[in-house]
């Protein structure tokens, strides 16, 4: 099972709303315990594209976030971004850019009044698997 810290989920939601109408982005840090994954901290990054249709992460911020994550003894669990005007599922571009089949890809949709957050795995053949999670 995948568990997301409630405060960290709220941070993703706040970032997405604050950066609307652009996509927001960041990393998911946490711990693996057997088959369980615990997302303990989000690392907000800047979308250097400043676009509502795609994102690029600031390389200097990426390096700093990974360094901080390691210093906090967290693993790179995955990344996330928002879809301001489309559903919470990987776009063709998202699938094309999903290079690591071992990490999670989170997508928060603000398309409707109630936000929708989903986690996915994308395998090397670009097949998408939607994953179950619990907010704790």
TrEMBL record:
Pfam family, one: Prok-JAB
Presence of keyword Hydrolase: yes
The MPN domain, residue ranges: 2-136
Keyword Zinc found: yes
Source species of the chain: Clostridium moutaii
Alphabetized InterPro entries for the sequence: JAB_dom_prok, JAMM/MPN+_dom, MPN, VirAsm_ModProt
Keyword vocabulary terms for this entry: Hydrolase, Metal-binding, Metalloprotease, Protease, Zinc
Protein name: M67 family metallopeptidase
The organism's place on the tree of life at top rank: Bacteria
